[in-house]
Design brief:
By secondary structure, the chain is mainly α. 49% of the residues lie in helices and 6% in strands. It is built from 18 helices and 6 strands. Strand 4 and strand 5 form a beta hairpin. Helix 7 runs antiparallel to helix 18 and helix 12 packs across helix 17. The longest helix has 27 residues. It binds s-citryldethia Coenzyme A (SDX).
Amino acid sequence: MTPSDVKATLSFSDGSPSMELPIYKGTIGPEVIDIRKLYGQTGKFTYDPGFLSTASCNSSITYIDGDKGELLYRGYPIEQLAVNCDFLETCHLLLYGELPNVEQKSSFVNRVTHHTMVNEQMHFFLRGFRRDAHPMAVMTGLVGALSAFYHDSTDINNAEHREIAAIRLIAKMPTLVSMAYKYSVGQPFIYPKNDLSYAGNFMRMMFATPCEDFTVSPVIERALDRIFILHADHEQNASTSTVRLCGSSGTNPFAAIAAGVACLWGPAHGGANEAALNMLEDIQRQGGVEKIGEFIGKVKDKNSGIKLMGFGHRVYKNYDPRAKLMRETCHEVLNELGLHNDPLFKLAMALEKIALEDDYFVARKLYPNVDFYSGIVQRAIGIPVSLFTAIFALARTVGWIAQLNEMIADPEYKIGRPRQLFSGAAPRTVKPIGER
Ligand code: SDX
């Protein structure tokens, strides 16, 4: 964080004393005006519900340029990582700041691989849920419950504890997500197999049964690994900000990540992939491509409350680069699986084309985001719709824990405690109940 030569001056039209505010610049992207002394000197807060103009932290992990549609993990464009790396290399990059060399990758993969099992007691925890519980309800519980098993390593001020918690969370999320799925279909849990890749191991835990050998499809393995890379981190989005705020109280990392899982579940955030696929299936049921015009009309009618799920983004005012890569993956997987005539994929591309030519979307700079195509790919490889967001959480866990650890390692960090503009009742006196 480099001080700028330029200062901001805040002055008041009533002649109140003005104040000078320092400006800081990062490596790339918008500069920040440091308002930390504002309240102390003026008695006033800034007001920014939804944080549209607020930088909550100084981070070196992920950079997004919303106007260009650019996404960098530790400086590397997502397009290059998605093609040249696998998910565990990307995890190493997000956690430690550099892509691993051969030895570092082998050691990291070995550490993650040997933490994939969960305590057998977790099986009993699952039994408390109804079989039809939403997987995100189960995941919120399971991830929080991990706190109960690692009393030996939850001192967040101990860098080794922070690192082993990161390894455990990255390693165990596929096991937990597949357990949530197996429980929902009444099948036995499948234990991790250490000679498989991260994505291959997840596929096997999801779809293998004790009754026969399971062969991982390289096409699906690669597609899933790319889905994980594309969802790994995304700057200070709602769930990452939740993890940071939760972790700022000093709670253990498992509890903080559980808070992130809960936040991601919302349809405006990670729940959009499930909502986008359900939206496509609804349009398909009602008539498919011919019904797109009618549906877009409902979306443009504010009173309908209907949004084009998988479209729009708080930061991207251009095409989400992940959506482009997801559409390519969609194309590859559907072709490889002989589903190139998948009606839902054709419907999604027709909907995208129409929306991108419609003034309503153009004026509001609404483009497809990561969630628009991810559901089609996941459905094609056999993932049930209700599990889409749990897979988003699986992939995002590395981003959450990298951001949490970055915050805690910063000696300047404090507990997050925003203030408010109060518009409620002025002080008043309680009357006896007979006089109310
Ligand atoms: C993710 O933050 C991240 O980085 C998130 C994420 C990540 O990796 O962590 O990228 C993952 O959450 C992607 C977003 C997934 N959500 C959806 O696809 C749900 C549909 N999208 C919308 O809910 C919305 O676009 C948001 C929530 C994503 C962004 O909302 P903003 O930034 O608050 O924008 P807004 O609601 O103020 O919208 C501006 C205008 C409004 O119209 P007007 O009031 O100006 O007339 O655009 C309209 C909105 O009504 N609008 C949409 C729309 N999204 C915005 N209209 C129709 N369909 C949509 N999808």
